[in-house]
Each structure stands twice: as structure tokens, then as C-alpha cells.
Amino acid sequence: MVGKYDLQDAYKSIREALSQAGTYNDRKVEVHFVNSEKLTDENVAEALKGMTGVVIGPGFGQRGIEGKFVAIKYTRTHNVPTFGICLGMQCIAIEFARNVLGYADANSREMDEKTPHNVIDIMEEQKSITNMGGTMRLGAYECVLQKGSKVFEAYGKEHIQERHRHRYEFNNDYKAQYEAAGMKCVGINPESDLVEIVEIPALKWFVGTQFHPEYSSTVLDPHPLFVAFVKAVIKNEKDINA
């Protein structure tokens, strides 16, 4: 788990969702916390050594963000199953823009208002709302999954509903470039056309969700994305040890 909140309860719901998914896969999930503020290109291989799957955690603000990009670049280039949640998904998009699309200065408007490549931006209709809480997209939203994608496989259906808690969104102006370079937008809100899920099909399991799947995971009904992620991690472990 790569994040900046070095507290046991900061990612409690994600830990629980991983644990539930582990039980469903007949495994006990062991979670190691890696503080993104301390990650660099020089120490990332050592920090993530032996990790068979990586979760890029949610959060707000600039702190620890560069370390998340370092972790994502490492897992993407080393084909380690990766699951980015909310800000984690946005970081996945930014890292890809910087290191694959070639926009070294790509960023979110949340982190850099003047970025010339605002691959993550605030929604047009939200810009006039100044109260930070008021600009958030909260609650359950529809999402249509692309058939044949890993997330479609995980859910086993095309239409889903998931809970959101964020202000910034994937910028559709860059969508065609992402898709051409290998990152697919596989979950779309049918009403607003906003991108909810990205994945890299060529990798073992590399998925980012704009929503919070951990909110709806329970002991009796573990969330399908966590179940699929843990399954991919188990398979990756077998591949490494083969």
C-alpha cells in the first residue's frame, strides 16, 4: 500500500476490503505500508522488493504525490499488479502522461494550476462553485464497462454503480492519446461521459478507479475489483516462484 497517511486507520476500509478479498481467494492478505513521501527513483526497487501487488491509495493534496508517481512507474515497467483508487487513479493517469505520452510537465490542476498538460482537471460545471466540499462529486454514479476489459471480467456485467468522493476528473481532451498509447478508458459515466476507470490491458492487472470500491465491500460480499486484484496478485506470486 503506497500512500502518505502513515496511520493504521487511514486506509482502514481498503485494508478490510483487501482482507475480505483474500478470504474469498482462500488467502490471508499481508499489507505493507510504503510512505510515498520517502520514495525516490533510487530507493523504489528496494522499497517494493518482494511485493506481488501494489495499491496506490487515495487522498488529497500535493504532499507525497511525487513518490506515488515513482511507485507507479516502477510497477508499470515491472508488470506488478497495481490498483489505483481515486487520487491513486489520477496519479496513474499523470505518470502515464509524463513517461509514456512524453508530457514531462503533465499534472492535475489540483497540484499545479498552471500545468500546460492538465490531464486531470476540475469539471467545467463545478468551476463556479467555490466551496471545496460543494464541488465534490459525491454519492453513487452509473458506469458502463467496456466488454472484454479486465474490469468487465471482474464484475461480470456491463452496468455498475459506484460511490464517489472527489472534485477532479480525467480530462477527455487527452483520451484518444491515452488509448492510442495503450491505456484504455474502460469505465465511462453514460450521463457525463466522464472516465471512471482506466486500465492497461497489456499488463497483468493495472487498473485505476475514480470511485472508491472499498466503500461497498463487505465480509459477505467482497468487492469484485478487490477480489480480481488479489487473484492477480496470487497469480503473479506463482509466476515469480515458478
TrEMBL record:
Keyword list, A-Z: ATP-binding, Glutamine amidotransferase, Ligase, Nucleotide-binding, Pyrimidine biosynthesis
Pathway listed: Pyrimidine metabolism; CTP biosynthesis via de novo pathway; CTP from UDP: step 2/2
Molecular function GO labels: ATP binding; CTP synthase activity; identical protein binding
Entry's EC annotation: 6.3.4.2
Cellular component, GO annotation: cytosol
InterPro entries: Class_I_gatase-like, CTP_synthase, GATASE, GATase1_CTP_Synthase
Record Gene3D superfamilies: 3.40.50.880
Enzyme class: ligase
Domain Glutamine amidotransferase residues, every copy: 7-231
Keyword Zinc assigned: no
Domain of life: Bacteria
Substrates-to-products reaction catalysed: UTP + L-glutamine + ATP + H2O = CTP + L-glutamate + ADP + phosphate + 2 H(+)
A GO biological process held by the record: pyrimidine nucleobase biosynthetic process
Family membership: Belongs to the CTP synthase family.
Protein name per UniProt: CTP synthase (glutamine hydrolyzing)
The organism of origin for this protein: Bacteroides reticulotermitis JCM 10512
